[in-house]
Amino acid sequence: MKLTCLDCGSVNRVPSDKLGAGPKCGTCGGKINTAKVYELDPAALAKATKNDNLPLLVDFWAPWCGPCRMMAPEFTKTAKALAPHARLAKINTEDFPKVGQKNNIRGIPTMVLYQNGREIARQSGAIQAAAIENFVRSNAKVDA
Ligand SMILES: [Zn+2]
13 CA distance to ligand 1 centroid (A)? Predict the structure, then answer.
């Protein structure tokens, strides 16, 4: 399946049975499917959301937003719970103001779920880890 390296933006191909085997990016050598929450820039966001077959949940947030900061540890927990079957990432809409506009983000935090090159669901407001995990599982095709 296609999986974008969220560090350098290269699109990699990874056999689905190797998703949990620490696959590395063919371009930069970085680990492309870990349980961490990746920090995105607009270029990596655009590539991953257009190409990836693995579910990708993106948190549109900003440092000045209290609920965003409250949700951050919940988001980190969910990344661990769903690895290696989904990736979680966030993008700072203060650093990249155009990205919110382009993705039609009206309030933050907003989480947008992508799979197979398109948006499949979105959810606004801070929620807890169990609810985030359930949001991903009930909307995306998650293998386990
Ligand atoms: Zn890379």
Answer: 12
For the chain, which residues make up each domain, given as ranges? 35-139
pLDDT (tens, 9 = 90+) of the chain, 144 residues, equals 999 999 999 999 999 999 999 999 999 999 999 999 999 999 999 999 999 999 999 999 999 999 999 999 999 999 999 999 999 999 999 999 999 999 999 999 999 999 999 999 999 999 999 999 999 999 999 987
Residues designated as active site: 65, 68
What's the gap in Å between 11 CA and the centre of ligand 1?
Answer: 8
Architecture of the 35-139 domain: 3-Layer(aba) Sandwich (3.40)
Contacts for 140 with CB less than 8 Å, ≥ 6 apart: 55, 86, 113, 115, 120, 121
Say what the pTM is: 0.97
